[in-house]
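Running this now, will post back.
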Amino acid sequence: QVQLVESGGGLAQAGGSLRLSCAASGRTRSNYAMGWFRQAPGKEREFVAAITWSGTRTYYADSVKGRFTISRGDTKIMVYLQMNSLKPEDTAVYYCAASSSFSTQQDEYAYWGQGTQVTVSS
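Update: finished.
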């Protein structure tokens, strides 16, 4: 089992920045890839970004490419999402998730955090 806890959400103005963090505990010795997903009101949850266990590969949704950066700490138990040039359409609950494979598909992720709210005002 892996437990994930997100933090760092909040309110930002359009054009501003926020940094989300995700702390993993439990079976963190397993080589999990990590992903960030988001769900806006009235919409389905969507993929945002993913990173391999080693941190050497990343992948982004087109909607955030060039604005968001996913990274993980040296100990591999922390994952971050740096969000720059925020837009009102980035408003959503953001979730981090762990998977045994590097994937953009939600079904591939076995463990999920509780989510953190990000609100971007215009």
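The first strand starts at residue 2 and ends at 7. More later if anyone needs it.
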